[in-house]
Amino acid sequence: MADVEGAVEKEDTPRQTLENGEEEPQINLELGQLDLTSQDDYFLDEVDVHIQENLEDELVQEALKTRMEQMLSSFQTDLRSISTEIQTLQEQSMSMNIKLKNRQSVRSELSQFVDEMVVSDYLIKHICETSVVERAFIESLHELAHKINFLKEQMFRDTLACEDVKDVIEKLRVKAVSKCRDYLLGKIYQFRKPMANYQVPQDTLLRYRYFNEFLMSNHRQVATEVRDVYLETMSKIYYCYFRGYITKLLKLPIVLDNEVTLFSVKTVVKNRSAIFCLGHRICVLTTELNDPIIVPHTAGKGDKKHSLENIFRSVQFALADNCCREYQFVVDFFNASGSRAQDLFTSILGKTLHLYLKYTDMYLEGCYDGIGVLLCLHLAYRYQEMMEKKNIPCLEKYWNSLLANIWPKFAHIMELNIQSIRDIDPQKVNNIDIRPHYAMKLMGQLQMEVENFILRMAAEFQHRKEQLIFLINNYDHMMTVNLDRVNDDGSHHESFQQTLNARIQEFVEEILQPNFGGMINFVKETENAIEHGNKVHVDERRIKTLIQSFNAEWKKAIDNIDHDVMQSFTNFKNGTSILQAVLTQLIQYYHRFQKILNQSPFKNLTCRNEIINIHNVMVEIKKHKTSL
Which ranges of the sequence are coiled-coil (predicted)? Predict the structure, then answer.
């Protein structure tokens, strides 16, 4: 501070001497001796005035420049040193970070490896001592299975640590296999107890299905043993149960028409008016379809008699219900699917299904109740459809075999009825009078019931098109049979022909809808509006879409209709006539479509120029008629 004050006190002196020009060197020397690099806080503040006043002095300027250059050089050197240190620290930090990540990765993998390889006392205790039904044992079994798989993987890689634990894990595997085997076989043996409800042990087995999965993964021989014992046990149980059930049901009083004919005078029919009437018997296909099965010892106490179809329904429903449950168990417990699940199911219920087919043949052998047999056929179809909806295919072959056995029996009964009418000798019929014969009444009942039956069968199809194809095929077949036996066309034939024509016309409209429905609906709506004098709405966008859609797809659509019609109808002649009706109706609709577009509301539409000429369509249609 004293140096600065002294410099300030001499402020006037340099000015005077400069004027005299005598002491300039001395003043310059004193100024040059100032410590401009001082770090004191007061330097810039107090010396600044002195420097500014002497700024024109070249020596002062040089001194300042020199000092500033030295200061900046020193500062630059310090910055370089700091930058180098920062870069070094960054490199060291990156190196340490990489080392840390590598160590953490190694530590994580090594820790996981050690955890999966080491066998804890907890695991050993629960595998060896804990009951199999406890949760701790099941969790330990999962852990053991994981360690076994991990050990196999590491042994394949020749890991040296495997030698230290493989003996322990092997002993635990053997112990776990033994406990799982004993438990599963114990539950299966419970099925063999008299009057045992096998569904309860089955539910228990499903709860512990992982035991079987563990055996399948770690000891195939024991798993095969458990599977074979189960298949053998359940096969015997089902066979004995259903054999006893069928035997007891057949001992119940049954309402059955055991006589061979229905029209023959050799048989005295007590209630002729009800021979072809379903009455309440149809309930077996509706409200009683899924009713509980008939219990033999309960049903046998009263005087109630059971019809053929009720016995058949109870037997088949019991079979279908048990088969659904058993198939689901096989799929879940043995983790099977597809053909393997079907093979396991057949091993269990194959003998029982064969027994069912055998008893069905015996049951229907002396039966001539046509309605009862027909209801049995329909019951088989219903239960087959029910199992298809549940996606359980295990009884598909059984239903096909059952239907193949019943259909010939039904055909035989119908042939006997037809033959009985042929064999009637009017001269041997007593008490002939002018009133209607009961045979004609029965014929009317039969025809009515058959027609109703065909309609109910058609209703089973989901789509209207399939329903119409079914009805047309049956009506056409019925007319063909009538024409083969009757030379003239009577009123009966005319009635069937009218019904057939109505179904064909409906089918024609139905088959045209997928490809030409937009055009057909437009024609009907517009014609209806014109007919009633209503204002016609001109939707150019809709009309343009209809024209473009028709132009793009009409040829392919006609080919598809041709193929569809010829594949759908069993009678080739009937199929060709239906195809002609479809193509003719298409031409008529297209002609009406063009006629509408030529009328005043639509004349100015530019899209009319895109319409295909009707003669081109007719030429293409003639190709299909020629092929017929």
Answer: none
